[in-house]
Design brief:
The chain contains 16 helices and 16 strands. Strand 14, helix 8 and strand 15 form a beta-alpha-beta unit. The chain is an alpha/beta fold.
Amino acid sequence: MKILLFILFLQTSVSLASSQEMEYVTICNEKKECRKFSRLVMGTDHLIQGNWVKEGQPENTQEEAYAVLDEAVKNGINFFDTSPIYVGGVEHSLGQWRASREKSAQADQFYYSPQLNPDRKLYVLSKGGFPFDLYWAKSLEAGVHSPELIDTLKKKGILAPGAELSLTQSTPLKNVPTGTYASRLFGDYEQIRKRTGVELGHTLNNLNGDITVYLMHRDDGDAVDFQEVPRPKMDINIILKAIGSHKAEGKFWMHGWSNWKTDRINKSLQLVQKNKKLPKPIINSPYFSLFEMSPRTIHALAVQVTHKEMMNPNFEKGIKIMPYSPLGGFSILDKPEPKWENAKAAAKKKLDSGDAYWKNVFDAIFTKDNEARWNRVVEFTKVFNLKHETQYTVDQMMNAYVLAHPRTDLLAIGAITKEQVKRTVKSLELAKRLTPNFLDYLYAGVKDSEVEKLLSLSNKK
């Protein structure tokens, strides 16, 4: 499951100005209809999940969840990220909340500043194209699947060697390991259209028929035990036509990609440039964080972009990039003070307990390189505050790191309290103060004269 949480939770009291102005990104469709989306996109994956920040943490009640969503709007956030597979049926809850706030969102007094949310609309981004989770299904969906997946399932003893697959009935599987998926974007036009249409129908019901942006979350691909099955990917032209048929029926305003590799992103943009009948993808949502993933990604078929790529103004030119990260609720920011050792120990405990999510995240995130980055960002935040007489927190600095890159158009965040919403919004102003030299230092430890001058303050305290 894609984790759309980028806010880190630090239990530090900071002074927050409610008048902070949100930033907006203008996006237009082929009809030149334009909308202004908040640069921070409110993720909802863990909004009502219990035991996320710490053991024993209760689920947010509906009243508490609505209060967090209201706080986001009051701070100028008008773009919300959700999915039908997110925890606790939150997509449906978001749909109900939005319907109940439609009139309120039009009034100036609902906001901390009347300049916020100029469109006075609440936009929702949802996702489909999820591969079939065979671990939970215990069967292979009726229809056509890649021969490479079928061969791998047979070799692993998950599918009987002589099993005959059916176009109309599912095929039983046995001993399916976690992280085993069959692509929903494999097959001919009709099959892809049908399979994506099933998910889309659920989301349309949850969001009362109003989807602003719809992403295909993960490209065509299969995986067994979290390892991708090597094979050629489906022709993007076929996928675009299938998605375009749903768009032509008015089921969403714009579409895009999530966890698609750069060559596939660029290929899709080239195709729509040549064929104006194909729907243009408007947003790409990859993993991007100061904590870079190791070769073991945080979930099967995850795709990340790098510091170097995101510093290049021409990287994936022609599409808006909306990064996500798995850092929300990280015990890195546990009391009594944030420590890498605390986070690693807590993650290892979950790993040893058999938690499927942490099976990947532990090896993906807890690397020596990321430990060095953590130590740098802690020290950098300290001396930055010393120089500027500010009180920025480490989580704000890490959010600002992502926001300061030239190719970060939007950022998916995952606050689950009102305080976290306010604190994350403050990352926007901090991002303006981070120079390319500061970003290079935080990522790779490169020290130029600007960085050396700042760090020297640490010795003068």
